[in-house]
Amino acid sequence: MSLTDHGRVRKQQFHDRLGILHHRHLHRKLKERFPAAFNTRWTRRHWLHASLFATLGALLATIVPGFSSQLQPAAQLHATLPLQLPPLTVRAPGEGAGRLWDVVQVERGQTLGGVFDRMGVPAATMHRILDNPANREALVRLRPGAELAFELDEHGDLRGFRFDRSPTQRVELDLRGEKIHEKVLERATTTRLAVTSAEIDHSLYAAGRKAGLSPAAIAVMTDDIFKYDIDFKDVQPGDRFSAVVEETWREGERIGTGRILAATFSTDGKTYTGFRFERNGKAEYFTADGRPLKKSFIRMPIPYARLSSKFGARRHPVLGKMRMHKGVDYAAGTGTPIMAAGDARVQFVGTQRGYGNVVILDHGRGHTTLYAHMSRFGKVRKGQQVAQGTVIGYVGSTGLATGPHLHYEFRVNGVHRNPLSVTMPPPEPLKGADLAAFKAATAPTLARMESMEQLMFAHADQAKPKKNKRG
């Protein structure tokens, strides 16, 4: 045997030895992974199959790269690979695409101090913000649901504060440094017209709120539009109303209701209608034919007061003599507000003998009213124009009076008339160009309101159970 042949034999023996070692290693691994199979006594057939599978496994391990690694225990499958990572960027305070705000909604009964305390911001910082009168005015009148935003640094110190000063203005304060820097952001709003209708189930207020009207809008209906024609204490379930209302929207959210442009109210088989229109720069409500809903005078300058003395001859309670009582008396507690009976110019404010503290109003066209025995005056002065319902004074007992009450007189061209029975002058209706403009403005509004009523109430009437007719 030559040296070359001897080398081949040694090389073949080496590979055979490797094969035996590989078979033994594979056998051990299989036994470790499937012990139940090796605890059973194997027959010659079992060993033949096992040898065949081992040979195939060896061939696959040689031919397919990475196949043998699948036979390794699970713990050996983890590996660490070097990755190229971008360099770490350190951002300075205040940099970045956006600021991080912690937004808090004010809860019912929660104060501004309570919100700051909850956020861990000292009261001194809060007072620093409130030093600005504009901020104070907005923040001391917070309502439930109002949003306040806090920007805190890594130490928990307040560096920024945000709040809404009005429905259209958002204020951002930068508190870094000794001086607070303010930025006012205008928030765009849009106004839309909405038509709403409702039928009263329990109360007008509940029905109005359910229909989306604000408390202020409901008050306009009851106190401004229909108060002269409808006694709202007598409103019954089944009465209906409709209203065309301005709505303010911001960023896709309705944030409030504004002016009522038109309204109808159906009660006791009759429907009342009112339309808003500006005459001589002053907004009023009119009927469909242009007549003001507001009466020239209200009968009682003190609502719900008790009539204690009528107009006519009587024995004076202080002097004890028969004298003409040239007005009517309303008994009320000291300090009860007294309202102007109609739009007027203040003719007199001061003291007049037995009248005590007195105010006289000139309503024009020869009509004047007098209010006596006041405890004090309202914020009125001689020559001032006042609107109907303006508080001109407060009930008292100054002058010749036995107790707190209002002495009220109504005069026409200087002649005293009974305020309870005198025919009040009708208000001036719209005429000429004003009437034409009113008709043009209200026609589409009325059409929209009638369409809504037909749609809503027809559906409501169909939904009601029909009563059986008796033959």
From TrEMBL:
> Which Pfam families does this one have?
Csd3_N2, Peptidase_M23
What sequence ranges are listed for the domain Csd3-like second N-terminal? Answer: 195-311
SUPFAM superfamilies, per the entry: Duplicated hybrid motif
The record's subcellular location field reads: Cell envelope
Q: Which residues cross the membrane?
A: 47-67
Instruction: Tell me the cofactors it needs.
Output: Zn(2+)
What is this protein's name? Peptidoglycan DD-metalloendopeptidase family protein
